[in-house]
Amino acid sequence: MTINATINGKSVTLSAEPDTPLLWVVREELGLTGTKFGCGIAACGACTVHVDGAPARSCSLPISEIAGKNITTIEGLKNEDGTLHAVQKAWIAAQVPQCGYCQSGQIMAAVALIEQTGTPTDSQIDEAMTNICRCGTYPRIRKAIHAATGQAATALEGAA
Amino acid sequence: MADTPTVDTETAAPAKRKGLKRRMFLIGGVAVVGAGLFGISMADSSAAKSAAKLVGGKGDHVFATWLKIAEDDSITIYSPHTDIGQGSNTGLAQMLAEELDAAWDQVRIVSAPAEAAFANVGLGRGFLAEMTGKPAIINGIPQSFMSFLARQMNLQITGGSTALRFTGQVTFQKVGAATRLALIEAAAKRLGVPASELTTQDSKVLHVKSARTLRYGELAAYAAQLNLDNEPALKDPRQYRLIRQSLQRLDIPAKVDGTAQYGMDFSVPNMRVATIMAAPVRGGKLTSVDIAPALAVKGVQKVVKLDDAVAVIGSGYWPAISGLRALAPQFSDGGNGGISSASIFQAHDALMAKGEADGEAGDGDVAAGLGSQPIEAKYQVPFLHHAMMEPFALTGHFKDGKLDLWGGMQDPLASKMMAVEVSGLDADNVTFHPMIIGGSFGRRLPMYMEIVGQVTKLAMQLPYPIKLIWSREEEVAQGAYRPQSSAALQASLTQEKRIAAFRNDYAQPESAESETVFPYILPAVSRRHFAHSSNQTTGAWRSVNSTQQGFYNESFMDELAHEAGEDPVVFRRNHLKAGSRHLRVLDEVAARSGWGRPLPSGTGRGVALVESFKTIVAHVIEASVTDDGTPKIHRITTVVDAGTIVNPDAAMAQIEGGTLMGISSALGEAITLEKGAVQQSNFSDYPLLKMANAPIIHDVHFINSGSEMGGIGEPGVPPAAPALANALFAATGKRVRNLPILTQAKG
Fold first, then answer.
1. Could you give the residue ranges of the DSSP H alpha helices within B337-437?
2. Residues B21-46: pLDDT tens digits?
3. What percentage of chain B has pLDDT greater than the value 90?
4. Which of A114, B391, B418, B681 has the fewest CB atoms nearer than 10 Å to its CB?
5. Is the pLDDT score of A156 beyond 70?
6. Which of A16, A29, A107 sits opposite B256 (nearest CB)?
7. Which one of A43, A75, A107 terminates a domain?
8. Where in chain A does DSSP place strands (E)?
9. β partners of residue B380
């Protein structure tokens, strides 16, 4: 049995067992290692990808459920001309990553949130950004999301 | 030579630091026969030659082991530290490039090869000096590191917040300065002018008089033949153009586009993936396992039984973990089946009640000072798990008599040596290839990196490369935890509301004494350690013993302030030395947080002040409790005195992250034991802080005291838990004496 899907704009035919989580197919079959393994139970979000534009935790998504879907991983986020996505640029400007391991997932979750809401509020960020960062980069993630949507440091100014 | 550092070295540095450096030179001179502290790296020695052989190619010239200048002007720095995300490699590069006067855009820094030639001798000697001369710079280093380091000089360790403090100040700045002098000497010869007429800028030597310029790249070949000055003069800090700048971290671009390669991401052709389950009760052994159910899983190739674990090998992680889950291995409990979190706390209580301490430190007659009715409080904290986001992943390949390992550890060289020991191979036949690390916080230190032994055993018996991945469940169950610990605190107050005597009895595996800095000036103080170990592996968890000691001391200080009927900031002020750095940090955090200003009903402020790793940090936290009992943090104000800051923005990121790690552990984290085994399994029952619980406002301020450089990766953690607990007391009147807070609230 094979499963056809689109990953980062390319059609792929997957031959792994249907119960195999998308994460391991992406990492081990396709060699796209930017998507990370953190917990295996959809708790941490290090494996976040987009499935038809919506964030999904690929460690718990069997490939049997992605037939015909459009998958985007961190490697597929750059613009067509190869430049970084605005959110990736904001991540560098705010110097967000520390160990960096969770950041592919954080960026994918942030891009999906911004695409869905335009300019997310702090409470929308709290609700959507449930990915875990052990290094504690949350303040900078928040800052980068605001900056990427033209709301530089509103949270701080508004509260002061 | 070694005992007479030049005056220039210390220009504009305070007198105290001058004395300190001088002592370090003396100790280095004694410890390293015939050379200064940096002699082995700086002189034309065998280590430098082997280093050149390892990393030098055509047109490359290696200086003092750690630096390579190519004829095209590109500059490569070899870091003996592992950048776990704390930004230390960028900071180290800034320090070396500053003294070298290098063009920053031509500088890159990479992991040093895990070979003896790149052992961090400066760090080793600095630590070892503790045994002989006790220079102040190394106070506050955990005892567990000391004993390890005393045994092992082949080190490339990262820990104890030491990268910039030791390697940066003790080695890299001097390597940069000495190489710059050699380049000037080379230019003087080439141009036929005195060296004194030459200046350097952006990787060039300039002769202004004749308007001639030579590139470092064209001088490197000659300069590399010269003997380097062991004690070059360092820059006056007022001339700094890289140090103290918030330069962007060099490792970040690859961490936003998925290209950074962690140990988990390594792959070679024909590689298989293994996953493992060790005895759930530490100390137990594998007694039996029927391997058939695993072999029935498609993609599973082999089951390997180890002494205390079973590993399943498959074509990928999914078949391997599916195969492992199909097994029902039987393990013995090593006689540890009766151990539980409750039994450990009971043992702590019994030991402290008996009163026969394993170690005591302090001043004054505490027993007399405490009198017959001291104020008392008992505190308890659980085991904590590091929860690095990247689970252990290490690849090994044994072929043609040689073993190669690829992955991320906090000490690549010690990892190699462990593989040498387990494999029985010669060191020359074992190579460890360091990769980027997805978090560590102390977990990947060499004292407890059993995965190196596991993968070595697997690789030695398999005909293909093998990547061993620990599941998150294995990671949680087989940690090297911050120890479960108890403390019984006692104090008495005078009629003037001053502390007359203060006693801190605590029970845990190791003494915290070498790390503890108790800043308050009291007539009588006693700290007594009661040693108690369980079957668990315990180790360094970010900021080590300062986390629980900070919680005990700063919570109890708050209790005493309330007993005295005094404001907690005022009460602390009254026990700190006038003019001290601690007092300045406290005053600054009070001012910046608006301490004393009215708050909405139900919201409280808490303060805590802890020095660790030579850095003083105070937090003021504003918090309330929501209807379901969950604490809500509204605002954190932090003041830090870490002496000189190399990269202010990177330092701020470390303080932000450390603070949140302290908050996370205080709120929800606990590893508990039942029947000798860990009860938690994943992030579902070991909850880490998420965005929604992280405060939006965190104001971090650094005091530029000019004091000696302190650590930055760890010191943000210890005051976080007590500041939060004190804020919740102010908000609710309920004192938190057991962590984590959420378990207490619900229990």
1. 341-354, 366-370, 412-423
2. 222 222 222 222 222 333 333 444 56
3. 76
4. B681
5. no
6. A107
7. A75
8. 3-7, 10-14, 48-51, 54-57, 70-72
9. B486, B738
Interface of A with B in 30-59 (CB under 8 A): 31-41, 43-44, 46
Nearest to A95 among B437, B471, B649 (CB): B649
DSSP A28: I
Q: How confident is the model at residue B562 (pLDDT cuts 50, 70, 90)?
A: very high
Q: Answer whether residue A156 is part of any domain.
A: no
Whether A157 maps to a domain, the answer reads no
Predicted confidence (pLDDT) at residue B131 exceeds the cutoff of 90: no
Say if residue A59 is in the same domain as residue A95. Answer: no
Assign B138 a pLDDT band (cuts: 50, 70, 90).
Answer: very low
Distance between CA atoms of residues B371 and B152, nearest Å: 47
Q: Residue with structure tokens 């402020």? A: B605
Do A42 and A96 lie in one domain? The reply is: no
- Count of alpha carbons within 13 Å of B447, Cβ hemisphere only? 22
- What is the model's pTM? 0.91
* Domains annotated on chain B, with CATH: 8-251 (3.30.365.10), 357-384+481-746 (3.30.365.10)
**Per mean pLDDT, which range of A10-14, B346-350, B407-411, B534-538 is the poorest?**
B407-411
Evaluate whether residue A80 is within a structural domain.
no
The phi and psi torsions of B741 (rounded to 5 degrees) equal: -65, -40
Cβ–Cβ below 8 Å for A136 and B660? yes
One-letter-per-residue 3-state SS of B488-519: EEEEEECCCCCEEEEEEEEEECCCCCCCCCCC
Find the mean pLDDT for residues B232-240.
93
> Measured between beta carbons, which residues in chain A are less than 8 angstroms from residue B265?
27, 33
Rounded to the nearest integer, the mean pLDDT of chain B is 88
Give the pair of three-digit tokens for residue B402. Answer: 């040689």
Closest C-alpha among B533, B489, B490 to residue B511: B533
Number of domains in chain A: 2
**Looking at residue A104, which CATH number applies to its domain?**
1.10.150.120
A52 in the same domain as A108: no
Residues recorded for chain A: 160
Lowest mean pLDDT among B18-22, B51-55, B196-200: B18-22
Question: Rounded CA gap, B680 and B670, in Å?
Answer: 8
* Cα–Cα distance for residue pair B259/B741, rounded to 1 Å: 39
What's the pLDDT at B160? 67
Residue B535: HSE in the Cβ half-sphere, 13 Å Cα cutoff: 25
In chain B, residues with a C-beta closer than 8 Å to the C-beta of A156 are 696-697
pLDDT for res B45: 56
- What is the DSSP track for B628-666? TS-EEEEEEEEEEE-SS-SSHHHHHHHHHHHHHHHHHHH
Please say whether the beta carbons of B86 and B654 come within 8 A: yes
Residues with Cβ within 8 Å of B440's Cβ and at least 6 positions away in sequence, in order, are A99, B82, B84, B158, B386, B388, B408, B410
| B261 backbone φψ class: left, alpha, beta (φ>0; ψ -120 to 50) | beta
Range of the domain at A132: 86-151
Q: Which residues of B touch A126 (CB under 8 A)?
A: 691-692
Same-domain check for residues A53 and A100: no
Q: Summarize the confidence of residues B697-712 as an average pLDDT.
A: 91
Q: Are the Cβ atoms of B660 and A142 closer than 8 angstroms?
A: no
**Which residue in B600, B710, B700 sits closest to B660, CA to CA?**
B700
| Of A75, A101, A117, the domain-final residue | A75
